[in-house]
Structures are given as C-alpha cells and as structure tokens.
C-alpha cells in the first residue's frame, strides 16, 4: 500500500516527466524496495491508483473529501475516491465535484 498523498505527489512528478524522481519518492516515503517503487510508479503512469492505507480513526469518506477540497487538495480527493471506491477517473471527478458543489473545481 502506498499512501494517497504519496501517490498524488509521485503522479505530479510523473506528469512533469520526472519518473525516476517519482520512483525515489515512492521508495523513500512508502518504505518499499526499489523494484516495488518502480512497479507502483508504472501503475500511476498508466493512470491507475493503488489502495492507500486504511484510515480507521478518520471521518467518513464524504467528510474526508470535503476537507481535502477545502484545503485545496482536489487531486488527492479524486485519488482517494478512486482508491476506496474503485471508480474511473471521470467517475471520481464527478463524485468529488458533487461534494464540492462546484463543477470542475
């Protein structure tokens, strides 16, 4: 499992053409081996997400999403929805947007 915030930051690096930096970030922050970090980065590069760490003492999913949106972390909210609800990118974006009250927030 790779924390959602690490997946988002790694994805940002991949989008910026910094795949190897993304692998290093995943390896260090998720405390996984180099080959595992490489596989995680390949999954992210392919447009997929991985399960994050379960959050047992957290709010329910809609509350967590609203908190992320309010903090300006829409992409992390979308990754969270995709990870926990097994949704496509467009489905997750629509779900996040419905909770934010703003289309394409």
What does this structure look like?
- The chain has 105 residues and is an all-alpha fold.
- The chain has 6 helices and no strands.
- The protein has helices spanning 4-15, 19-30, 34-45, 61-70, 74-85, 89-100.
- The longest helix is centred in the N-terminal third of the chain and has 12 residues, at 4-15.
- The chain is elongated and about 40 Å long.
- The protein starts with a helix and ends in a 5-residue tail after the last helix.
Count of distinct strands: 0
Radius of gyration: 14 Å
Distance between the termini: 28 Å
- Low-pLDDT ranges: none
Assembly level: single chain
State the helix count.
Answer: 6
Element order, helices and strands? Answer: HHHHHH
Largest sheet: none
Overall geometry comes to: elongated
How would you sum up this structure in a few lines?
With 105 residues, the chain is mostly helical.
Helix-strand blueprint:
Blueprint: H1 4-15, H2 19-30, H3 34-45, H4 61-70, H5 74-85, H6 89-100
Give structural attributes:
105 residues; 67% helix; elongated; mainly alpha; 6 helices
């Amino acid at each position: 499992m790779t924390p959602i915030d690490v997946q988002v930051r790694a994805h940002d690096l991949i989008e910026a053409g910094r795949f190897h930096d993304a692998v290093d970030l995943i390896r260090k922050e998720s405390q996984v081996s180099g080959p595992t970090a490489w596989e995680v980065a390949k999954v992210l590069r392919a447009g997929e997400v991985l399960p994050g760490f379960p959050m047992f003492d957290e709010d329910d999913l809609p509350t967590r999403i609203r908190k992320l949106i309010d903090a300006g972390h829409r992409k992390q909210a979308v990754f969270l929805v995709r990870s926990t609800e097994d949704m496509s990118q467009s489905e997750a974006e629509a779900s996040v947007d419905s909770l934010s009250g703003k289309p394409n927030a």
